Amino acid sequence: MNRLAIFGLVVVVLLVVVALFAPLIATHDVGATDLTHRFLPPSAEHLFGTDATGRDIFSRVVFGARISLRVGLVVVVVSSIVGIIIGALAGYYGGWIDRLISGYLFNVFLAFPGLLLAIAMVAFLGAGLNKLIFALCVIGWVGYARVMRGQVLKVREYDFVQAARALGANDLRILFRHILPNAIQPLIVQASLGMAGAVLSEATLSFLGLGVPPPAPSWGVMLEEGRDLSTLSAAPHALIIPGIAIALTVLAFNFIGDGLREYLDPRQRAR
Amino acid sequence: MSDKFFPVICRPSPVTALMRKLFDVARRGALLLLVVWTVVSLVTLLIELVPGDPAVATLGEQATAEQIEQFRERHGLNRPAFFVTYARDEQGERHLRWHGADNRYVDYWRGILHGDMGTSFRTDRPVLELITQRYPATIELAIAALIVAVAIAVPLGVVAGTHRGTWLDNLLSVVALIGISLPGFVLGPMLIYIFAVRLGWLAPSGRFEPSDIMLPAVTLGAALSALLTRMVRSSVIEELNEDYVRTARAKGLSERTVVYKHVLKNGLIPVVTILGLQLGVLLAGAIVTEKIFNWPGLGLLLIDDGIGKRDYRLVQGCVLVISITYILANTLTDTLYRRLDPRIRVS
Q1: For A56-104, how does the pLDDT look when each residue is reduced to its tens digit (9 = 90+)?
Q2: DSSP line for B249-277
Q3: CATH H-level superfamily of A3-11+77-270
Q4: Mutate to test the interface with A, among B28, B180, B186 (most CBs of A within 10 A)
């Protein structure tokens, strides 16, 4: 593992701890407004200062980690399960199933900007955490399906799979006991990168007002509130701090993904 | 290998080659149409899922029954949505009814084939007109961002590639990584803070002066330039190991000429593909950038006028036009890529 991946891992562990123990770490009520203490600079009382309505930015960023990680985790788990099943079907059975899945579905989903589809879906379904998660899963599964299909195509010709088949193992057993464990590595890489993508998409949609609705301390919502010109000139930290949180989180998952890929692919490691 | 070693017999006849090419073009065209069809159908079906009546949403709760009826008539909302409907009748029972081609979904397609994308719910103006008004601004922004990205990435990538492994290379790698991870909606407002609020050099938003494009273009181009820098770097490193570089050096060319005339020319081929694939990403990213800077392009039309005012006909049109542009940009790059690299053309 390279140093950057270790750095990513440290950031992610820290983030998980912060999200799990958010009520203990946060110093103030996330929703409590105090108009007499607006735009305060960072201090001992308010570690990251306060925003336009006097809310404590530190506490909001801490609780924001919960939203980001929750969205990321659910999106990655659901879309990877869906993607693995669809990719396995395409790779294992081939024929018209494969032509339909990889020839049509993959091409359509890849020929189309995922963000636009998510925006369109959320626009029609309405804003909200669950709808946002649903939209991100709809655009997210394709990546896993492609990886899974590729791995299945490669692994299914191996001798041990042929041996399992000769011993009378059924398709399900072959797929999940023999092929999946061999395909798991690139899928983990994909999941790590997918986590970065989901966190970023959640922030983007919330920023556009299409994700988590405003009073919630989503990092995207905080950025949207912080970019208001009067807030920007009075308290730039209201924008910079959630911005750093997003960038750091995305960077960390990308580092882990890249590091894993390098580690699992010896040809890249030698370079 | 030249033709001398391959007698004419071994090569496909011109007719076969032409057939193959035509088949390839047809296949691409079919896929393109398939994607467009899927996208439009998906969006059209999504609109039907919207809770509530668009007529009430547009006209407000105070609208009279007559006004609502007129609105529904004008926008075809009184017609069945799809080939089959499962609506309640007067007794409140649900019935499956077949409407044939007499439905809104077919109407929309018929309109598109006649160059008509319907009428905006809010403004009562043709959607096509609204879109063509805003389209140039988006393309302008995307091209400006592309120029920014290339102008930053090529010199930095070459420097990193030729100084491989040094502190300079490492520094540039870290900068590129930060650039990739910094989303537009973080970078954009930060640029506004520095250049508009603090320094007062540029306007924080809008599209009035020629200089107004600078901040949005940098915001949109930054992530791409970071990605491109990495591409150019690895491309330069790979090309520097080629035999022709040794030949060029041996015949006494300066290192500068070797790098900029020989290495860069070959090294840019894979970069062009990434660039084209990213052109689509740029168009999608432009939605966010336009929102940040109030840049009057398609993205702002979609978010503010379409989604913000619940003008679904406009949303439908914007999604259609953005995705077609995206697909065309990708197809174009693919073709360009094949022309640039003869190895791909042959295989």
Answers
A1: 778 888 888 888 899 999 999 999 999 988 888 888 887 888 888 887 8
A2: HHTT--HHHIIIIIIHHHHHHHHHHHHHH
A3: MetI-like (1.10.3720.10)
A4: B186
